[in-house]
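Q: I have 335 residues here and want to know how they pack in 3D. Can you give me a structure?
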Amino acid sequence: MEAMSANPLDLLPEILLLFGAVAGLLLGLWAQHRQAKVRAVIVVAALASAVAAAIDLTEPDKAVFGDSWMIDTTTGVVRITIALSTAAAALLASSRLAGHPRETETYVLMMLAALGAIALAASNDLLMLAASYLLASIPLYALAGFAKDSRAVEASLKHYLMGALVGVLMLVGIATLLLAAGTGNYRELASTLPQAPTPLVALGIIGLLAGMAFKAGAVPGHFWVPDVTAGTNPVMAAFISTIPKLGAVAAAFRLVAEPFTRVSLDVPLLVVVIAAASMTLGNLAAFQQTEVLRLLAYSTVSQVGYMFMVVAGHSVYAVPALSKGPRFVTAYAAR
């Protein structure tokens, strides 16, 4: 049983990211011709967040702030990975952004998107998940159109429209589960959803998994990935197609492992179908690409399929494979 807490220092990694975003924005307003200082603030804040998250990994699991935020190994790994990736992306982007009039805004949006992705992974309540989805999405819509040319505008518009459509579907799913169970807390959902009406539960599960599939770039919410990847610069494309995946896959894993684990519906099978479709379509669509960035975009679609297999890995579909695998290897070696 995890301990419960309301200590603000439990969110120190996230506070450092938020502080870096706010401090970078203010510094950029005061030092418009020396925006390299903003980059330094962003990188230092991200590295400090990673250090704080690494220290927090040694602590026991706990649910904080009314059991709406879970701090465990999954959250810790996502915190560290996203913070380090954001620092690396800011440094890599410096060659293209140095001296650009929107350099400060870009770094700040990257920090806010990173914060939203971490919130997705740590959310332990449906309403917190909805807020995290918005925080992890809106900054990326602006980053996708950073170049402000025709391709960037098209990419940003497609990303926004797809995100709005899936976001509405996700909110419908959340509202349906709240109606069916009377609560949004994951632990309470795990005990109440098995007795809830199956159609409502099914609609809620589909809506939530659709939202996570969109953020991760998995089928069927992958349509934005090729256009966004090809419509912005390579560093922004790498950031947009990587950071949200980490939070979305962790959020999907948490949903399947706790609130959906005892429902009468075969949720792991649905995740397996999403994973298989993403791996298949991503690899096959890559054959037809004549542009490197679009080729890499479909590569990310296929890779997220492999990541979603981890989400279903604790299900009954993984047990036979794990149990038969060693016997197969032993039998093959004995031949």
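Q: Anything worth noting?
A: The chain has two domains: 1-122, 147-335. The chain is about 75% helix and 5% strand.
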